[in-house]
Amino acid sequence: MASDVGFLKRAQMELAYFSGYARLKQRGSGGAGVVLRFERVRARQQRRFQPLKASEITPQFLDRMIRALKRWKYDIVSMDEVCRRAVTLPTANRFVALTFDGGYKDVMTAAYPVLAKHAVPFTIYLPTAFPDGLGEAWWLALEEMIARENRISLVIDRKERHFAIRGTSEKYQAFEFLVSWMRTLSPPDLSFAINDLCKRYSVDLAGLSRGASMDWDDLTMLAADPNVTIGSATVNYPVLSNLKDADAQREMAMGKAVAEAAFHRTIKHFAYPFGDPGAFRPAHVAMAQELGLASAATVLPGVVASKGYTNLHALPRVAWDGRRRSLRMMRVMLSGAFLPQVKAKRTNWG
Description:
By secondary structure, this protein is an alpha/beta fold. The chain has helices at residues 2-19, 21-29, 59-71, 79-85, 105-118, 138-148, 168-182, 187-200, 205-212, 216-223, 245-263, 282-290, 327-335, and strands at 33-38, 40-41, 56-57, 75-76, 95-101, 122-126, 151-156, 159-164, 228-232, 269-271, 295-297, 318-319. Strands 1, 4, 5, 6, 9 and 12 form a 6-stranded parallel β-sheet that branches. Helix 6 runs parallel beside helix 8 and helix 11 (245-263) runs parallel beside helix 12 (282-290).
């Protein structure tokens, strides 16, 4: 059923492109622009089991996309400019902002050469424990573990659970189930669960997390580029909804403070870790406002309106699915034809 739904959605988007519907719809639904969200940028992997493939694009696709955005007359803008255009009258050209979550090393090694060549602005949302080698990329450890094992066991709700994962489909099912379960855990419980699994199956969680993340030298080099905006994404990248309010506020405030101390500048932009509706609550939106942040980005899909109709502390972003490599699909998405519509009044989160 999922594959059928995916096929139908692609067919609808193809029809919207070739019929001209998307460009026509853009006049009423396109808003002021769109903030795009990416994570990893690296060469295409050939493995059968790639549960995180949706969060990856290749450097070649990034290059093609930027060329296309320029050809389509989009303004590629910084997050400061997004905030400005969100509260002013519409401009002749719509905008696109490029953002990268997670602080991955390949943003420096694979994405930055492309972005620098095109001299376009972009934003990195940084969880500050990871450059220090203290962050735990549990989702990467889980992927590696499931990829190489035929069976895994762990304790869930005080019961030993066993997963037979010989086939690729079984591996995907186990990964989806365990990610969903782990995302419900408090940070201490999550850390205990993933460290226990890593010890059982000889996965170097600390080494894997360090190897996948930019260090402070990488980030200092990027921060020296005026086209680069460094934003914060807490310290440890927790699901904020699983924290007490005081702990969530501490994560948000400390992530901002550490980044400001490291880069000697005010950090004005923030992204909620994971950013989907289950990852944060209205209380966290209020915290972002109280911290004096200019914006706080979600992965709630939508366009950014002008004239103050978009809540900048629950800023919508389009999380591009890296399994799609069609620029036609990109143009349809940017048109807003398949995104939630901007309402003709100021909107608030909650």
